[in-house]
Amino acid sequence: MSVAKKEYKRVTVRSLVEMKQSGEKISMLTSYDFSMAKIVDAANVDVILVGDSASNVIAGHETTLPITLDQMIYHASSVVRAAKRALVVVDIPFGSYQGDSKEALRSAIRIMKESGAHAVKVEGGAEIQVSISRILEAGIPVMGHLGLTPQSIYKFGTYTVRAKEEEEAKKLMEDAKLLEETGCFAIVLEKIPAKLAAEVAKSVSIPIIGIGAGGGVDGQVLVVHDLLGMTHEFNPRFLRRYMNLYEDMSKAISQYVDDVKSKDFPNEEEQY
Cα-Cα-Cα-Cα dihedral of 114, 117, 123, 125, to 10°? Predict the structure, then answer.
């Protein structure tokens, strides 16, 4: 059964709550530059996440840990200039909020002031509650992130599914409720059992957006490079590829090289 969609000229944190209440699913994709964000925004994606996954897909690092606050602000600024409808959420990078709530506030303020973004996202639950509270007290909207938290990869040691065991599942549920009570406007759940994710979504009033968390949540997020098939070596179960740009782009670039070498490009109509 389809749900009647409300038209939003600009998606806000309040819009996402309204979507959850009406049963409309929330669409969320990453973007890291002006050109991609312009395409994503024009397609009516509800939320654009300027993810620290830029560390992987843009900079080529193995993890999200190396990307800096300055680099995140640069990417976010580029995206904000393109986004006319979508809510723009920016990851606060590793090391910029975990240990010191004052530093967390400074980081969030820099992102908001220097990029023009609409909200920030942080990974973790009870252990970062003080940092979240301080950011919220400054009037900055915060999105939470539980389950597989890539900034903690060296703690987990693997990117495997999280919260399969009862104890970890219980803590995740507690953290989700805590994030709601603290004031987060939404939570991303990454790579956890679908049944647990659905239970979390029913237990809180704020939107739950999943990645590898099944269809029982309030919305979905993917890395745009994965969705478009540009990162062809990454093949998790939760990923649906809507294009195979790696293959198409490789063919196009190879054809360009051949045309230049053979003197076919440029032809007489392609010069002045």
Answer: 110
Tell me if 226 is assigned to a ligand binding site: no
The DSSP bridge partners found for residue 50 are 90
For the chain, helix (H) and strand (E) counts, in that order, are: 11, 8
114 is catalytic: no
Q: What is the pLDDT of residue 233?
A: 85
Catalytic residue among 190, 233, 269, 270, which?
Answer: 190
* Spatial contact of 110 and 103, defined as CB atoms under 8 Å apart: no
Task: Write phi, then psi, for 143 (nearest 5 degrees).
Answer: -100, 135
What 3-state class would DSSP assign to 67?
A: coil
- What confidence tens digit (pLDDT) does each residue in 78-100 have? 999 999 999 999 999 998 898 78
CATH architecture of the domain with range 13-241: Alpha-Beta Barrel (3.20)
Q: What is the pLDDT of residues 150-187, one digit of tens each?
A: 776 555 555 577 777 889 899 999 999 999 999 999 99
Residue with tokens 């045309």: 259
- Residue stretches of the chain with pLDDT short of 50: none
pTM of the model: 0.93
Q: What are φ and ψ of residue 78, in 5° steps?
A: -65, -40
Residue among 122, 161, 126 nearest 144 (CA): 122
Is 258 annotated to bind ligand? no
Q: Distance of CA 165 to CAs 5, 40, 41, 162, 192, Å?
A: 37, 37, 38, 8, 11
- For residue 129, which of 178, 84, 168 has the smallest C-alpha distance? 178
Domain ranges across the chain = 13-241, 245-272
- Phi/psi of residue 209, each to 5°? -110, 125
**Residue 123, annotated as binding a ligand:** yes
Q: Is 31 annotated as a binding residue?
A: no
